[in-house]
Task: inverse folding
């Protein structure tokens, strides 16, 4: 085994040591909190400032936030920040299934706390940034756009996790840029959520789940399709220690 392979194996073993799981879950909670504050907060501040925050700025903010979060804490938890990303990594066998429930619950809690923060500080403006179909857009149209947008997002994440690593600067740039790109053209149709946790937060705090089914089914379907495409492009997964390190993080227990 080469020194590089040995180092990667040690990082994966360190992640699988559950004594540090609380740090990883806190990282997911904090990272998702920051993401949803930026994503939902853009709409809230735009409403309060009578449009001082443009749509371009609204969609750039979450992309830049994700880029920053991957860079500063990706090595701790993998910086999933999204239940369907956790699902995709598990389906690729780069993340243990037994850890999926805790990650997903933590992401949902982080999103809810972000919207509670916005409500407490700025009030119930801009629908708390809730994602919903655009004017004149049917639910099925919104659903298909969310499937497509999430397919691209998760494909980008899985692709960079297997090569440049999801914890590295190239992946952070690719994922952040994709989120901005998807928002620039997709947000008028669906809000460009691509993340059930991001949509869950505003709907929970606002007690309005009328459209949540779109943002649960659409991103989940998109992630499953992305896993299928990754299988075609790179095989079944679960054999690349670099991808496992990217998905799981490499927090040392020493």
Result:
């Amino acid at each position: 085994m080469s020194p590089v392979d040995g180092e990667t194996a040690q990082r994966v073993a360190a992640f699988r040591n559950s004594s540090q799981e609380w740090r990883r879950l806190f990282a997911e909670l904090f990272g998702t909190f920051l993401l949803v504050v930026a994503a939902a907060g853009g709409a809230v501040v735009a409403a309060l400032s009578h449009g001082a925050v443009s749509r371009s700025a609204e969609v750039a903010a979450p992309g830049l936030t994700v880029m920053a979060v991957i860079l500063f804490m990706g090595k701790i938890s993998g910086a999933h920040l999204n239940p369907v990303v956790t699902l995709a990594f598990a389906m690729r066998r780069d993340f243990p299934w037994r850890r999926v429930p805790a990650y997903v619950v933590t992401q949902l809690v982080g999103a809810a706390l972000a919207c509670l923060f916005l409500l407490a500080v700025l009030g119930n403006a801009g629908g708390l940034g809730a994602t919903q179909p655009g004017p004149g857009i049917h639910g099925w149209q919104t659903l298909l756009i969310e499937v497509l947008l999430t397919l691209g997002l998760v494909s980008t994440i899985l692709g960079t996790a297997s090569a440049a690593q999801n914890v590295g600067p190239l992946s952070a740039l690719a994922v952040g840029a994709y989120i901005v790109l998807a928002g620039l053209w997709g947000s008028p149709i669906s809000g460009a959520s691509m993340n059930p946790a991001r949509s869950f937060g505003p709907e929970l705090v606002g007690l309005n789940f009328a459209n949540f089914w779109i943002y649960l089914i659409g991103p989940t379907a998109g992630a499953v399709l992305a896993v299928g495409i990754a299988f075609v492009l790179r095989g079944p997964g679960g054999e690349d220690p670099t991808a496992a390190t990217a998905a799981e993080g490499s927090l040392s227990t020493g």
In short: The domain at 3-248 is CATH 1.20.1080.10 (Glycerol uptake facilitator protein).
